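Example with several molecule types.
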Amino acid sequence: MRRIASNFMVGLMLGAVVVAVLPLVFILGDLLVKGAGSLSWSFFTRLPAPAGQSGGGVANAIVGTLIIVGVASLIGLPVGIGAGIFCAEYSGSRLAWLTRFVADVLNGVPSIVVGVFAWTWIVARQKHFSALAGSVALAMLMIPMVLRTTEEMIKLVPRSLREAALALGYPRWRTTLQIVVRTTLPGIVTGSLLAVARIAGETAPLLFTALGSQFFTTDVTQPMAALPLTVFTYATGPYEEWHRFAWGAALVLILVVLALSLLARLATRQRFDLNG
Amino acid sequence: MTPLTTSALPSPVPAASLTTTSEPPRLRTDKLTAMYGKSTAVSGVTLGFPANQVHALIGPSGCGKSTFLRCLNRTHELSDGGWITGRVLLDEEDVYDARVSAMVLRRRIGMVFQRPTPFPTMSVYDNVAAGLRAGVRLRRGETDEIVERALRQAALWDEVKDRLRGSAMALSGGQQQRLCIARTIAPAPEVVLLDEPTSALDPQGTQRIEEVVVELKGDFTIVIVTHNMQQAARTSDTTTFFYLGTMVETGATRQIFTAPRNEQTEAYITGRFG
Amino acid sequence: MASTVTTPAGRARGTLRASLAEQRGSRGDLVFRAVLTIAAAAVPALLAVLLMELVRGSELAISRFGLRFITDSIWDPVAERFGAWPLLAGTLLSSLLALCIAVPLSLGVAIYLTEFAPRAVRQPVAFVIQLLAAIPSVVYGLWGIFVLIPLLRTTLFPLLRGALGFLPLFQGPIYGPSMLTAGIILAIMVMPYIISVSREVLLAVPGSQREAALGLGATRWEAVRTAILPYARSGLIGAVILGLGRALGETMAVTMVIGNRNDVSASLFAPGYTMAAAIANEFSEAVKDIHLSALAYVALLLFVVTVLVNAGARLLIWRVARGAGAGSGAL
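Resulting C-alpha cells for the full complex:
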C-alpha cells in the first residue's frame, strides 16, 4: 500500500514534468511552423510596408535591436563587471554590502517600471523619444545580473592563485586583472552573454523610450524600431499580414536569444576543458 | 616516557649560536610575533638564516611554522586580520619599514605554496616568465634564456621543452609544483620560501622536489616548512622545531635529529606526538 | 659593482624601497580601486535616481489623490479621475491564479528532478526548463493571442463552465482574453524560476536527512514528505514568493492576453487589467499631465510591492541556505 502511494506520487511528478515541458515544445513548434513561412530575403532587407499592404520587411527593427542592445551593453557591462569585481575584491567593505543589496533589489524591479523611470529621466527632459533612453533602461536591467555572476565567478578562483601572484611581486591591480579575472573570464563572458540574451527580448522598457519606428535610422537620439516592439505592434494589430510578420519577427528574435544562450554555454565549456 | 607538558617551555637555544661565520645571516627575524586579529599564532621568534643553506621548520600542525614563513615575505598581512610585531631583516634591512615596497620585497623573497598554483590560463613558458613580467621589461631573447635556466634548475626542462606553449594544467601534480619552483626562482630572488611543497604529491614527486631543493641552495637561501621529518633530515642543513607558536629549539639538522637538547623536540622527532 | 650584489639574471640589486616603477605599481592600485569604486557606487546611485524620478513623476498624482489612489476604483482618464484599485486587484488576482497553477507543478518537477529522476534525465530536463525562462515575454504574448486563446476558448473554458459553472468564478460569457488566460500564461512563465530556485533549495538539504529516513524503512516518497520537505519548507516558500515577484511585474504577455478592461469582475472568464498592463497600454498615448503622473504613481506602487515581495522571498531563501547547517532544528 505504501509502495503504491509512493509510486502514485512519483507518477504525478512525472506528469508535472510533462506538463512543464509541453509549452516549450508547443511554442517552439508554432514559432517554426508559423514563423518560417514569412521569412524571406525581403523580410531581412526591406523596410515595413505601409499598413494594410503586403510585402516589406523588418530590416530596420533588426538593425535597431542590434544598436539598442549594443549601446545598452556598452553602458551595462562595464558598470556591472566593474561593480562585480569590486564586490568580490573588497567584499568586506560597506559599499560592497550596499551594492550587493541594491543589485538584489534592482533584480526584482519589473522592467516596465524601469521603462517609466527612463521616460521621466530622459525622454521627458529631452521632450522626445529616443533609442538611447531605451538602451539606458536595458542597461539598468542587465547591471544586477552581470554584477552577481561576475562576483560569484571571481569568488570561485582559489585564494592560493591570488597569493601566488602577489608572492611573485605583482601589484594588486595586475593580480586581479591578469590572474584572477583572466582565469575566470569564460565565466564572466557567459554571464554577460546571458544578460545580453535576456535584455535582447525585453519589450516593456522600450515601449515609451525607443518607441519604435517605420523608418530606418542609426541615430540613437531618435525613436528607433526594435524586434520585440515589432512583434508586439504586429501581433496586436488588425491585419492578417501583420500577424504573419509578427511570427516571423518572433522567430528571428528567439533564434537570436537562443544563439546567445548557446554561445554562453560554449564559453563555459571551454573553461572546463582548461581545468582538465 | 616523559609526560607532555605544555607549560613552562624552556627558552630556546639562541639563534646566534648557529651562525658559524662572522657574516650576518641573509635573513633574520627579531622577536617576531604574528597575530590574527587578537589571537597569537607566533610569539617572539628570533632566528637567523645564513645564505646558501637549506633551513627546515618542523613541528606539529598548527604550531605556527607556516605563519612564521608567511611573515618573512609579508604574505601574512594578506590574511584576514594578519599583523605582526618585531622585525624581519633581509640583508639587515627591515622589510616591514614603511618605505619598503612589499612588491619589491616579494621579488627578492620568492615563495612556493602547499598545493601547486600554476596560473591556469597561461602556458608553461608564460608561467615561468610571469614573475619576470611583474618587474622590469626584458628583451625576448633574455626571457627565453632565463626561462630555460629556471626550468633546468627545477629539473623540469627535459620534460616540458617540447610543450612550452602548452597549458600548464596538463602537467602532473609533481611537474606543476616544479613549475612553480621554476616560476619562483626565475626572477632570481635571494631567498626561496617553501611551504610544505610536497604535501600534495606522491612519493616519486616528493623525491624530485627534494633533489631540486638541495640543488638550489648553491644559488639561493632556502627556508622550507615541512611536517615530514625525514624530509627535513634529508634536505636541510639546519632545523628549527616550533611548538604552540614558539620556537623550541634550533640547530644543525644532524644535532637536532641525533641529540636534541629539548625533551619536546625529542618527543616529536621520535614520533611520540605530532 | 662592489656595493651591489649581481643576480644570476645580471640585474643589479638595490634597496627594498620602492623604485619609480613600483610607485607606478601602487599608483595603478589606486587608480584601479577608484575605477571599481565608481562602478560599484553607480549601482546604489542608480537606484536612488530611479526612486527620485518615480516620485517626481508621480508628484502631481500623489498630491491630488494621496493614498486614496490605492482604494479608489474609478480609473477614468477623460474625467481625470484616477484610482488604482482595479489595477492592483487585477495584478494580485492574476498573479495568485498563476501561483495556484504553477506551484504544484513546479514543486513536482523540482522534487522529481532532485530526488527521483535518473541521472541521465536531470540535466536535459533542467536545460529545457531554463530555455523556457529565456523566451521573451512578448513571444509568450504572441503565442497566447494566436494559439493559447483559441485553444482555451474551445476546450478548457467550456469544460470548466460546464463542470464548475455553479461557482461565480466560472460564470458569464467566454471571450478568450481573460483573467484566467493571463493566469495560465503567467504560470508557464514563472514556473522556470520557481523550479530552479526550488531545486537549489532541495539540493542544499544534507544527504543525511534523506538517509536517516530511508534507514528507518521509509519509501522514497515518504522520505521526501517526512524528512526533506519539512527541512526545505521555508526555502521553498521563498522560491514561490520569488515567482510571485516575477508574476506581479510581468507586462507584455499579460497585456496581450488579459483583455485590458478596467473593472473587477467575479468571473475568471471576464477580461481584466493589471498595473503593468495599464502602464504599457496608456503611457505612450497619455496626453494629460495628470494621466502620465497617475501612471507613474502606478509604477511607483508596483515598485514598492515587488521590492517588498522580493525582499521577503530573499530572506526566506537566505535563511535555509545559511541556516542549513546550524539552524535546522528551528525548521
